[in-house]
Amino acid sequence: MNGETFDDPFFGYMRPRPPRNVSDETREEIKSRILKHIKVE
Description:
Layout: E1 5-8, E2 13-16, H1 24-40
Antiparallel strand pairs: 1-2
């Protein structure tokens, strides 16, 4: 889990795992923004 990459369906490609200091709320906010971006396109 430390520094590994994982398949993020929101990006569709392998990317670094978010830092541990990133809170779940922040991650959910980022995901919601990404989903809004996808819907707009």
